[in-house]
UniProtKB/TrEMBL annotation:
Location(s), subcellular: Periplasm
Keyword annotations: Signal
PANTHER family documented for this protein: ALIPHATIC SULFONATES-BINDING PROTEIN-RELATED (PTHR30024), TAURINE-BINDING PERIPLASMIC PROTEIN (PTHR30024:SF47)
Record's keyword annotation contains Signal: yes
Family: Belongs to the bacterial solute-binding protein SsuA/TauA family.
Keyword Signal: yes
Pfam families reported for this sequence: NMT1_2
GO cellular component terms, A-Z: periplasmic space
Gene Ontology biological process: alkanesulfonate transmembrane transport
Main location class: periplasm
Protein name: Taurine-binding periplasmic protein
Length: 340
């Protein structure tokens, strides 16, 4: 899906070094190719790429390749355009491995900031009649999960849109009474007297979190574990740094990859809900140390059910299949002093 870090699509290829095609990260140029999203929030991959003190600790030169949706990014990964995707949502990732792409989630970056915007006629969930959402996205996943928790499945019409701009316009025109939409659009709709009936943080507590991840092909992780380890370490560090007093120092150079002004990137990044380091482990594995009992595995199971209901997967992956696509080992090593 389209990741919702206030991102916009980009067609140009940006990077720190020129490179040839293919997914190898240690070829003649030593390039580390990463599919990423542009937009106001500085993703951790952009922060790492733009700051030499961080980038130098990743073996190879980082090359950022813009993508406009998680689904498109996973398709490009499978085709060999790059071995990593940063910020990919749970539906595109689960959809990819459910349909044969051998890919692993190695780090949980953030939880989407979004919400259900309603007009002044909607006072409670039972008042909803027609809700707009970006079709097949993590937002769609969250909305349907929340409606199920409210026992409103089948009682509320879901209007599917190909873009968030279109659903926002439909709400402004009074064609729908609510939209489940990302924060950038949510802030704009609030200027038009929209009220947030439920926020994504509340929906996430029900198990329907819109999770943004660092994913890598299994083959690449096996062949280049040092690169994966370096990225996990430095992406984690970048997320901590942008929440500190030197946010401007780290985000300003990253803004050249985002397509926005530095001041806008700084403002958006400071408030973005990156997963705190102290919570990372619980996402990747449970108290028993197994990926199958972690929060991410639970999320992937619910995501699989969503994909089957949408006709995008034939069956819900088993606990064993889900665990095979979550690799906590790089985070474990990082916590054990494995970072440079």
């Amino acid at each position: 899906m389209l990741d919702h870090r206030f991102r916009v699509a980009g067609a140009a290829v940006l990077g720190l070094a020129l490179a040839g095609c293919g997914a190898s990260a240690t070829g003649a140029t030593g390039g580390v190719k990463i599919g990423y999203f542009q937009g106001a929030v500085a993703g951790p991959e952009a922060v790492v790429a733009a700051n030499p003190e961080l980038a130098a600790k990743v073996p190879g030169k980082i090359e950022l390749r813009p993508i406009d949706s998680g689904v498109a990014g996973m398709a490009q990964l499978r085709a060999g355009a790059f071995p990593f995707v940063s910020g990919v949502g749970n539906p595109p990732l689960v959809g990819a491995f459910s349909n044969g792409t051998d890919v692993k989630a190695v780090f949980v970056e953030s939880i989407d900031a979004s919400g259900l915007a309603v007009n002044d006629k909607i006072k409670a969930p039972g008042d909803l009649t027609k809700v707009g959402v970006l079709v097949g996205s993590t937002l769609d996943f969250q909305l349907r999960g929340w409606l199920a928790s409210q026992r409103l499945t089948g009682k509320v019409q879901i209007a599917s849109f190909a873009s968030e701009a279109a659903e926002a316009a439909a709400w402004k025109a009074g064609k729908i009474d609510a939209v489940y939409i990302s924060r950038s659009f949510l802030l704009e709709l609030q200027k038009h007297k929209a009220r947030v009936l439920v926020a994504s943080a509340d929906v996430a507590k029900l198990g329907y979190a819109a999770v943004n991840l660092l994913a890598v092909t299994s083959a690449y992780a096996k062949q280049h574990p040092d690169v994966v380890q370096g990225l996990v370490c430095q992406i984690s560090k970048a997320q901590t740094l942008v929440k500190g007093p030197d946010v401007g120092k780290y985000v300003t150079p990253a803004s050249r990859f985002l397509g926005v002004k530095p001041e806008d990137a700084i403002t958006a990044t400071k408030s973005y809900p990156y997963v705190p380091a102290e919570e990372e482990g619980a996402w990747l594995k449970g108290a028993d140390g197994k990926a199958s009992s972690g929060r991410l595995a639970q999320n992937f199971k619910l995501t699989g059910e969503f994909l089957v209901a949408q006709g995008r997967a034939k069956s819900v992956p088993t606990a064993e299949q889900i665990a095979a696509h979550i690799d906590p080992s790089f985070w474990d090593k990082a916590q054990a002093g494995g970072c440079k």
